[in-house]
Amino acid sequence: MRAQIAQLLMFTSIGTITRDMFGVVFNLYLRENLVTNQEIGNITSFMLWGSAIIGFVMSLLAETIGRKKVLLISALLVPLFNIGMIVIPDPAALNAISFFRGGIGILSQTVVSAIIVHMTENRNRAKVFGLNIGLMMASGVLGNLLGGFFGEWFGLREALYLSTALYCISFIPLLHIKVPDIRIAIRKVLDFSMIKPEQKKILTLYYLSTMSIGFGAGLFIHFGNLIYKDLFGLSSAAIGVALSIAQLGTAAGNIFSHVLARRVGPLQLRFWSEMLVIPLMISLIVVRQPALFVLLYTLRFILMNSASPILTTIINSFIPKEKIATLAGINAFLNNSVRGIAAMLFGLIVGASVSGYNLLFSVSTAFYALNAVFSFIFLMRYRRHPIVLSLYPSRKDPQPPLR
């Protein structure tokens, strides 16, 4: 089983490296082709709506036709859509291509999460989830660096082609992964009668948290390269380094999050991390010194994302295993839907003026504050729950029986 988990982690790592190589230069490539902020916001919005709609439909298909088939289909289509986005830099055409690219690109995340649950047990699930997300972030570091420097050395278009070619390496570990073959009739996939009242409550809270974070982040997180370009005029290489620093810190945080969670409590760690994000967001409104801004942006990114494996692990341990992919698909649908709306507002709020970023960060801060409220409710309701304590046992706490 360890070998299978290693192959799965290798697949996601390669996919993340090449995805971030592509992502760090794509908006800059559009800007080079005289695409406006509003048009870039619309393109990103269509990609996120594709992630929401197509991603949800395909996550349902993963339960009916098999998870590995869906992963293979997505792996085959990603390079094709990437090439389409490179050769047709027309905003109207890119809206359509981005919609399908977004839907196919999100699949590996939702399906891989479901596979990890089936490959692990309570005693090692938190560690594997943290390792998976940590490796994805570490891979993102390499992807941002390579994309930024290749864009600087060879040109933005050439860097996009190179990232697409390198993505094909992910087929090697994918073909060796033995995915548990669990197939369910579509009517059973959509049957939620087995979800108990307690599970419905935690899922509702989870989805509300997802939407508040999604909207707050969606306003700016997909445009980090443009923010650095507009506010400080950084080169693609410097932007790649700046984004890499944030992901490097987050990778370390993700990998060791289960250790910190056992010491201070998983939901306590999550709550205080997300509370500290609020003053950091406020600081982004006023700080315009490049090095300090990068530092604050990096700290915000690390705190907000380092605790992300905690809630994923807890939620996936609360719900029935056969519903994980479907419920993850619903979560991805909600997340990417609100991000799609927020991304469309990016161009409208910022416009052609740099001062528009002040309003953008202000609105985003309000939604991060709303998420902190949901995080506090999580903490109060579930910090002593037997499932939570079994996933993150403290040395001073006795191991509780599972209910």
Compact overview of the structure:
This protein has 19 helices and no strands. It is an all-alpha fold and 403 residues long.
Give the C-alpha Rg: 20 Å
CATH class: Mainly Alpha
Number of helices: 19
By CATH, the superfamily comes out as MFS general substrate transporter like domains
Largest sheet: none
**Shape-level CATH architecture:** Up-down Bundle
Helical proportion, percent range: over 70%
Distance between the termini: 27 Å
What does this structure look like?
The protein is an all-alpha fold and 403 residues long. It has one domain (2-177, 196-391): Up-down Bundle (Growth Hormone, Chain: A). Helix content is 82%, strand content 0%. It is built from 19 helices and no strands. The chain has helices at 2-32, 37-65, 67-87, 91-105, 107-119, 122-154, 156-167, 171-176, 186-189, 197-218, 224-232, 236-255, 257-264, 266-286, 290-306, 308-318, 324-350, 356-382, 386-391. Helix 3 runs antiparallel to helix 4 and helix 13 packs across helix 14. The protein starts with a helix and ends in a 12-residue tail after the last helix. The relative contact order is 0.16. Mean pLDDT is 84; it is low at 397-403.
